[in-house]
């Protein structure tokens, strides 16, 4: 079910997406009825505006610092930190600086 990555090969998730000036870059690794897994890079000041997901969304910051607004609460996460954003609750993501994250949504 995995795509866009080599199997049976050690890898660093942060290396799967490069920073691009003024952009959010994403690479989908899994997409099916049960789960979606994507890695993202955010340039400083770039964002994904408020939206809600059809499942619980777990983010882990791989490098840098990102700001996550979930139902009006603001969380600033650094590399190695994880946050679960509940299904149906509006959330947004903002690059406090360049940062990379892994997103896993379970349906």
List the helices and strands and how they pair.
Elements: E1 24-31, E2 35-42, E3 47-51, E4 56-63, E5 65-70, E6 73-78, E7 82-85, E8 91-95, E9 99-106
Antiparallel strand pairs: 1-2, 2-9, 3-8, 4-7, 4-9, 5-6, 5-8
Features:
4-stranded antiparallel β-sheet, mainly beta, Jelly Rolls, globular, 0% helix
Count of discrete structural domains: 1
Helical run tally: 0
What general form does the structure show?
globular
Radius of gyration: 13 Å
Helical content (DSSP H or I, runs of 4+): under 10%
Order of H and E elements = EEEEEEEEE
Question: Which architecture name does CATH use?
Answer: Sandwich
> How many strands, what sense, and barrel or not for the largest sheet?
5 strands, antiparallel
CATH topology group: Jelly Rolls
**Mean pLDDT, all residues:** 97
Indicate the proportion of strand residues: over 45%
Determine the N-to-C terminus distance: 16 Å
Low-confidence stretches: none
- Find the count of extended strands (DSSP E, 2+ residues): 9
């Amino acid at each position: 079910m995995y795509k866009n990555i080599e199997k049976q090969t050690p890898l660093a998730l942060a290396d799967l997406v490069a920073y691009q000036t003024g952009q959010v870059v994403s690479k989908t690794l899994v997409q099916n009825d049960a789960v979606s897994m994507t890695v993202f890079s955010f340039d400083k000041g770039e964002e994904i505006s408020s939206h809600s997901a059809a499942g619980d969304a777990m983010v882990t910051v791989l490098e840098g610092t990102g700001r996550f607004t979930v139902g009006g609460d603001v969380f600033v996460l650094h590399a190695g930190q994880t946050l679960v954003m509940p299904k149906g609750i509006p959330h947004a993501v903002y690059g406090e600086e360049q940062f990379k994250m892994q997103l896993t949504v379970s349906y």
